[in-house]
Amino acid sequence: MPASEPVRDALTQTLAHQVLGRLADQPGPYFGEFGGRFVPEALVAALDELDTEYRKALGDPSFRDELARLNREYTGRPSPLTEVPRFAENVGGAPGAVRVLLKREDLNHTGSHKINNVLGQALLVKRMGKTRVIAETGAGQHGVATATAAALLGLECVVYMGEEDTRRQALNVARMRLLGAEVVPVTIGTRTLKDAINEALRDWVANVETTHYLLGTVTGPHPFPEMVREFHRIIGEEAREQVLERVGRLPDVVAACVGGGSNALGIFNAFLDDEGVRLYGFEAGGEGVETGRHAARFSGGAPGVLHGARSYLLQDADGQTLPSHSVSAGLDYPSVGPAHSWLHDLGRATYEPVTDQEAMEAFRLLCRTEGIIPAIESAHALAGALRVGRAAVAAGRTDQVILVNLSGRGDKDVATAARWFDLLDDVGGDEAVVETVTSEEGNL
Amino acid sequence: MSAPATVSPTAARLAELRSAGRAALVGYLPVGFPDVARSTEAALAMVDAGVDVVEVGVPYTDPVMDGPVIQRAAEAALAAGTRVRDVLGLVEAVAEHSGGRVPALVMSYWNPVLRYGVDALARDLAAAGGAGLITPDLIPDEAREWIAASDAHGLDRVFLVAPSSTTERLRLTARASRGFVYAASTMGVTGARATVGDRAEQLVADTRAAGAENVCVGLGVSTGAQAAEVGRYADGVIVGSALVRTLLDDAPWTARLDALARLTGELADGVRGARTTTTRTTTRSTTMEAAS
Ligand SMILES: Cc1ncc(COP(=O)(O)O)c(C=O)c1O
Questions:
Q1: Per the CB < 8 Å rule, is B139 touching A318?
Q2: How far is the alpha carbon of B217 from chain A, nearest alpha carbon, in Å?
């Protein structure tokens, strides 16, 4: 296909970024020694087509305008910035010594940051003339966002979801079905996100001519890690301006939870080249890294290949993928986006585990101090922010500004939280919650 | 540059069979199913029943190119404690049992190879008498380390092509491969199918035209009739799921081995009968024209 003007523009831009060496514009396929394309040959043509179409679209004002319009009118962007002083008091220290600001991706339509990437890719699907989208989902937020975009744009939609996750996030299964998507529970392997991706890849190999795999995070083969970052970079760009306007300077710390890494990369990206801003990614520490039941790829894994990319990976001595564990389905994944591995090895971002227990405490704290019910995924970032804030207070620092990406809202997690905190003992135990959100499969 | 740095044992075997007027039968089994000892027994039974090349699978937790049958066998093999290094023993057994006549290729997803060490595995595989590796999720673009290691240790490297591959990629893959190029008959994962993809014959012709010396076809072949059909135009017929399925049964082990040998025999008859009914020379010269 002949290169049109916009393609050349996009490529020139990419090259210029490479020369300037801005971390924020690092192009794929490689992020340092991570990334790449470890896929069956059958998928290469589709990945090339996607890459071409994506680069063309980036340079096409009509694409950018349409995406900007949807972001504004459909998603409700820009998402607000909310200061949470009663929550921040819990780090101790003098009042106002540590200020915590939340980037409210939870207020987006469909309830999380996932919609940013989904709308971008869904518009590309239309441009490519494909009629069917498939997706994997863990917490269900990406599946819901994909089902939503499919309804909006008239696409057929199939979502693969590990059977264990369909149980913990039953409400989102119902939402996807309401939106007209087919939800396929995956019953092989660990029955969580990893196996949902395997099934989606198998579907894609067989149906690639009509089908786009709408991957939900910054993992996978090139161009996904770069492309998904581009669709999420708006989070950090908005937040950077909002913080500048609100506090008159850049934040000291930016904190986010890291599953595959899309919300974290989305908010980090605008600050990557601001040397004074410290970036923290919080992974699922599960029951504790020492127990082996966690999803802490950086403290418990090593570089390897899974799902098309080389990155940090939970694996055994034979390179077999180890199962991950987390109270939060969205962080329960044994690998991580290659850009995070790159930032980790560069020392540009710090990655730490947060246990289930710490995350649930932060979850409850935000509910009770600020009237905001966060997603359990996002609660890992909140717990991490408390930890960083306490360390700052202990070090005698004052005037610290911590920006936290509140990646999603907690409606989907009410059943899990009710069980965790025994909230419904007096009204029939946890069966009551499960029943309100689970129904006969066919009825939904 | 397609001149191999070493003489490929698999290519030599395929050439021998070509002069005998037939395609090779390539039989796949995963090591460790139902356990390492019995998987070795099964591979040798397959050799005795007439496979020309053995393909030994390394069980892997995330086999995205495999359908349910091979997934189940791999899961069971891992649950039984199979290690990557067990593949070396099986390869050695095939080499010994066949007096080096039957090349044994290892099929592995990439991460187990990376973790073992690319050069270390190449070294150990060559020492065990193995012929090379088939890499379903490694494309030549990402294979620099493996190309160097396979050259250093004189191993075959079998990359895949698919009906979606462009001419440019067929050329790239043909150039990078040694032994043969694995043509996926259809867009999809492994598993028996009622018909072998109708795009397979064209893909074989296109891959030859792109410079491949040998092209074997896999995915979906499960019967002697299908083997005969594919054997008409391909240099080899690769059968996986159908063979594995004979072992997945609940029947006593000896009965499962019998079923495996029976199916292998039927497939071997298939490739032997392939070119007696049609005029092989015509088929061949047509494709040779396309190649030149
Ligand atoms: C609210 C929320 N936050 C975070 C994540 C983790 O994904 P990522 O690391 O790609 O942002 C998910 C995934 O399901 C999610 O639903």
A1: no
A2: 14
Q: How do residues B40-55 score in pLDDT, each as one tens digit?
A: 999 999 999 999 999 9
Strands A211-213 and A182-186, sheet pairing:
unpaired
Number of Cβ within 10 Å of residue B282's Cβ equals 9
- For residues B205-222, give the mean pLDDT: 97
Strands A308-313 and A34-38, bridge-based pairing: antiparallel
pLDDT tens-digit readout, A361-383? 999 999 999 999 999 999 999 99
B-chain residue closest to A40, CA distance: B137
Residues of B in contact with A41 (CB under 8 A): 139, 159-162, 165, 169, 173, 184
A24-72+113-225 and A77-111+233-420: identical CATH topology? yes
How far, in Å, are B11, B72, B108, B283 from residue A34 at the CA level?
A: 35, 31, 21, 46
- For residue B173, give how far its alpha carbon lies from the nearest alpha carbon of chain A (Å): 9
Q: What is the pLDDT of residues B101-131, one digit of tens each?
A: 999 999 999 999 999 999 999 999 999 999 9
Whether B249 shows a pLDDT value over 90: the answer reads no
pLDDT at B197: 78
Instruction: Please give the model's pTM, rounded to 2 decimal places.
Output: 0.93
- Give the 3-state secondary structure of residue A363: helix
**What does the pLDDT read at residue B280?**
42
The overall average pLDDT reported for chain A is 93
Q: In what order do the strands lie in the sheet with A302-306?
A: A30-31, A34-38, A308-313, A302-306
CB contact under 8 A, B164 and A198: no
Active site residues of B: 55, 66
Interface of B with A (CB under 8 A): 60-65, 67-68, 71, 75, 78, 83-84, 110-116, 136-139, 141-142, 159-166, 169, 173, 184, 187-189
Distance CA B277, CA B283 (A): 12
Minimal-distance CA residue to ligand 1 atom 12: A330
Tell me the fold of B22-285.
Answer: TIM Barrel (3.20.20)
Predicted pLDDT of residue A51: 98
The answer to whether A38 contacts B169, with C-beta atoms less than 8 Å apart, is: no
Measured between beta carbons, the chain A residues lying within 8 angstroms of B60 are: 320
Residues of A in contact with B241 (CB under 8 A): none
pLDDT, tens digit, 9 for 90 and up, residues A265-288? 999 999 999 999 999 999 999 999
> For residues A389 and A400, is the Cβ–Cβ distance under 8 A?
yes
Q: What count of other Cβ atoms lies within 10 Å of the Cβ of residue A21?
A: 9
pLDDT the model gives residue A426 = 84
Of A194, A304, A321, the CB nearest to B114: A304
Q: How far is B281 from chain A (nearest CA, A)?
A: 31
User: Which sequence spans correspond to the domains of chain A?
Assistant: 24-72+113-225, 77-111+233-420
Strands A81-83 and A98-104: what pairing?
Answer: antiparallel
Number of inter-chain CB pairs under 8 A, A vs B: 109
Residue ranges covered by each domain of chain B:
22-285
CB B275 within 8 A of CB B22: yes
Q: B159, B176 in Cβ contact below 8 A?
A: yes
Contact A305, A229 (CB under 8 A): no
| Strand ranges of the sheet holding A81-83, from the earlier edge strand across to the other edge | A81-83, A98-104, A400-406, A253-257, A278-286, A349-355
Q: Which CATH class is domain A77-111+233-420?
A: alpha beta
Closest B-chain CA to A202: B64
CA angle A100, A105, A111 (to 5 degrees): 135
Contact criterion met (CB below 8 Å) for B236 and B24 = yes
CATH number of A24-72+113-225: 3.40.50.1100
